[in-house]
Amino acid sequence: MRPFLAMAAILALMPFGLPPYAMTLLTEALILGLTAMSLDLMVGYTRLISFGHAASYGLGAYTSGWLLLHTDFPVLFVVPLAALFAGVVAIGVAWVCTLATGVSFSMLTLAFAQLLYAVAFKWTSVTGGSDGLAGIPRRAGPFGMTILSTKSGFYYFVLACLLGAFLFCRSLVNSPFGAVLRGIRENEAKTLSLGYNIRAYKIAVVALSYGLGGLAGALYAPFAGFANTELLFWLFSGQVLIMVIVGGSGTLVGPVLGAAFFMLAEHWLSSYTEAWALFFGLIFIGFVLFAPEGIFGVFSTRLIRRARPVG
Amino acid sequence: MTTASGATISGFSRRTLLGSALVAPAMIRSAHAANPIKIGAPMALTGPLGSVGQQLKRGCELWAKTQNAKGGLLGRQIELLIEDTAGNPATCVRKAQEMVERDGCRLLTGITLSSEALAVVPKLAEWDTIFVSSDNGDGRLTAESLVPNFFRANISGPMGTRAVSLFLRESKLQKFFAIGMDYAWGHNSVEVFEGEVKRAKKEYAGAVFSPTGTKDFSTYITKIRQSGADAVFIVMQGDDNNAFLSQSRQYRLPDKVQLLTEIVDLASIRAVGDAALGLIGSSRYSYTYNHKLNNEFVAMWQKEYGNFPDTFEGEQWQALEVLGAGIRKAGSIDAAPLRAALETVSVESVKGLVAIRKCDHQGVQTGFMVKVVKREGATLPVPEVIATYPGERTTPPCNKMTYDD
Amino acid sequence: MDFAAFLLTQCVNALSQAALLFFLGVGLTLIFGIMRIVNFAHGSLYMLGAFVGYTLVRLTGNFWIALLIAPVLVGAFGGVFEYAILRRLYRRDGSAFLMVTFGLALMLGDGIRLLWGSEALQVPLPDVFSGVVFLLDEPFPSYRLFLAAAGVIVAVTIWQFLERTRLGLLIRATSQNAEMVHALGVDVRLVRSAVFGIGCALAAVGGVLAAPLVTASLGMAATVIIDAFVIVIIGGMGSFLGSLIGALLVAFVQVFGNYYFPDLALAFMYLIMLLVLVVRPGGLLGKEA
Q1: Which residues of B touch A (CB under 8 A)?
Q2: For burial by CB atoms within 10 Å, which of A268, B79, C4, C276 has the most?
Q3: Yes or no: is domain C3-279 CATH 1.10.8?
Q4: Global pTM value
Q5: Using one digit for the tens of pLDDT, what is the confidence trace for B153-184?
Q6: pLDDT of A238-272, one tens digit each?
Q7: CA-to-CA distance for C134 and A241, rounded, in angstroms?
Q8: The domain over range B37-155+290-364 is classified in CATH as 3.40.50.2300
Q9: Cβ separation of C139 and B222 shorter than 8 Å?
């Protein structure tokens, strides 16, 4: 609990130390961190590799964007509403995808995400088509409360969502439900033979994972002020998956670090050189070869070594 | 130099020399202390439209270089902030935000994709920043999505389409089909075209849209042929455009059907070679325009880069000329006075006169039609000007994307 | 154009497209079948083939030399990559391969941009196939006929290779039971290197053959990688015949689908994949369910 409180405190104090542009970057990093963490429930704890997580993000973003543009609801209501919507839709998606396993499962998640992309692309009257939704307001309220419309106010909102989601996920994975997930990850056949309804657990974890991914997307739309089809594209799904792996799957915290690392490395590398993708790729290959436990693994082994002096 | 007794040489006494030596560093310091004018350009330098972004980058760099050699703007040197967005709107907004918030940039240009522009534009007011577009053709940017700090110096999709349709009024072509890329720009331009054809009392045979990333155009070519049209209007760019032109030639489509296109650019002529011969289309800029300022620009470009300037290089140059003229007129780079100055600025540039109009911030400029032909001594086909139309006829009514006459 | 001519030309079109898709898919399915690697870099290798082919055509003026040598070069590159990097990862779980091939795709994409520039490059048709033939009075590029024929030839060649040669036998055996093959004294590592190299070479063949139709461009990798995966999944990961059937199915549905329902063009592939996987989760001829 202590490391968590320490991290939460540090993050809460950021607006007082960092300049505005850094705050913008940090807010976006936290939103991406939430996305990656939500995927970790599937990938790290249940070994359900999803190639379609962009669907949850995009669904959340478009829903919250549309609601903010076409209704009077304040941001505070819209965001959880959009997340709920994403989670509910995911139940149906999960029901179909869990008909298969392994790579077929992954490809089905991809298929759904791409179909959603196609729908968003063509349904111009609702989604704005290839132009997307722009000018999404961070509507204040309820009761005239304007704090969420400010930059720091929204940052705290994002932080609260991330910390809340983390606590929720952590208690989930430490619960009996989480034990079954781990059973599915380690040995699906055996867990099945123990009498568990594997499919139901899978559907549940996918729905939760997509719901939290939808929460992240729902936060993104008012943060950036727009939602477009790029958010639903398979490239983004691939990037989130990489964030999970490079951060350290199955740790919840790792993927958040992985997301921040991914975003910031891309941002800074591209300021220095046009050949940033070359170095970016090299970094990932380097991680696989030299730091297979991911960023979180690197930190925890070093911390553990420091905490327990030899001798 | 002084003689042994301290007498002066060429009117300078040693004291004056010493005095000026003390003052000079201060003068030099103050010249540098006049902080540079920063122009931010978050452009797609890599990714599918990377070659367009690279053109915009070269246009910006040469312009800044020549301006600075002439003393800069308002006595201040121009500093370009160029960063790669890879064509991703989220990255574009992030980079633009950093340029504004961290680097104190108040001027933006060079945004490559219309989707990137549409994402940035709503934030211009909050950033108190002016954006002069050099490449974004989406009609919406001067219609529904117009914001006060946005200015378009380039030719828009509707304007390009209009030049084509004015041309077809004078031609013998009677029946038209259209093919466009299946996203906002494609649909927008085809819609404008359809209206134009009908207003010209000619026959419109239909349209088909291909998704971005289509590699096989055989079905679409079949449709075009089956429509019986004698000309097809093409709204495509990049890889899709190159694949379509190559495959059309392979199917011998141009033998039966005249290809008309909304944008003719050198990069695609380089990519498809002779498959571009006979193509007639609207040009946003061509090195073959015969205008004094253009000839000077082309010569300068050839000296710097060793080749002819391409479509977006010329457009970027013009956009910066417009911005520069606005800054000189306003005497400032602050958003409010600059906006007022830009709203009525007009400047003679590489395409002739371009005049921003107040109602929708669109630069009114001549429309050009070119035909891609073989020229003696040139290895690649060349876009030759075949018609020009005054800006008043090619620019749509204020805040609109369609025409009334 | 009458219906017979339409049907004939569209069928030949579909066959030529199926050939290109098959070259992409067969390499991917072999790689997955033997090594359980989901190769994100497959589209980038296809693209590398197109660019290397472009340079070889420029240097030699001969398309056929390029078609022969580019795959060899790309295959060698693949073999070296497998030896240097992938070989260390077989004991690890699949996510290592995902990340490594993702990194490779990024590096290849930018590497190609640095070596060949950002613009699309023209690869001219081979002279002998630069004309048209008339199918029921409709002009049809002879190159596409060649593609369809090439697809058939390569498919038969690979089939015979897998059935009749020793390496082919080892490949098939390793895909079913790598440990047994190892126990029989065969160096499985060499089999894996060979398969990865062959898979890359086949992708490169696809790239060189596609280049005259679409130009060698940096956007190629992204547009074909999903196609490759879809074909292989529909056919069944690891199944050679499956990749052939997948390629034919996708090509025919796309050609005729784009004609009759152009609005759905973006979605066709995914709809087919969805349908197939719901009915047969392992793919049409797949082994895993």
Answers
A1: 45-46, 83-84, 86, 88-91, 93-95, 97-98, 100-102, 114-115, 118-119, 121-123, 138, 140, 145, 182-184, 187
A2: C276
A3: no
A4: 0.91
A5: 999 999 999 999 999 999 999 999 999 999 88
A6: 999 999 999 999 999 999 999 999 999 999 999 99
A7: 50
A8: yes
A9: no
